[in-house]
Amino acid sequence: MGSVLFVCLGNICRSPMAEGIARARLVAAGRHDVAVESAGTAGYHEGEPADARTLDVLRRKGQLCELIARQVRDDDFERFDLILAMDRANLRDLRDRCPPAHQNKLRLMLEPTTGGDVPDPYYGGKDGFDQVYRLLDQAMDAWLDAL
Ligand code: 4NP
User: Fold this and answer.
1) In this structure, are residues 21 and 136 in contact, taking their beta carbons and an 8 Å threshold?
2) Does residue 38's CB lie within 6 angstroms of at least one atom of ligand 1?
3) I want to staple 71 with a disulfide (CB 3.0 to 4.6 A). Which of 3, 43, 128, 130 is the partner?
């Protein structure tokens, strides 16, 4: 049982990648009891599909992503057990919005591994998206095991 929300800035690059990886892991493990979504702290890309470069990486790994980007909503802090920020700026924005009772749900995605940020790949090349995949892939099991 449990639910997890992955959060980045635009909800088109990093958090949809995290959502795709998490869904694939959960299906492979036969865990249909975990709810997974992603969202952005900003709403610039609301209503759009994930970035073509994120879709490309996921497709190469045999993973689908049907996400439509959306911004974080107030009720997300209630609905999810765990809210994972891709970088420290995302975490700060979430902390500013989150009611005190739910602050303990907010964590940094790479806390179980490097403790660093998942770098924003938006303005870079394709390599950046492969690196994002590796970082997310390495950290994911620790979170899913904790749910
Ligand atoms: P994301 O990447 O936060 O990983 O989805 C970005 C997407 C869009 C923008 C920045 C980062 N943007 O400035 O539009």
Assistant:
1) yes
2) no
3) 43
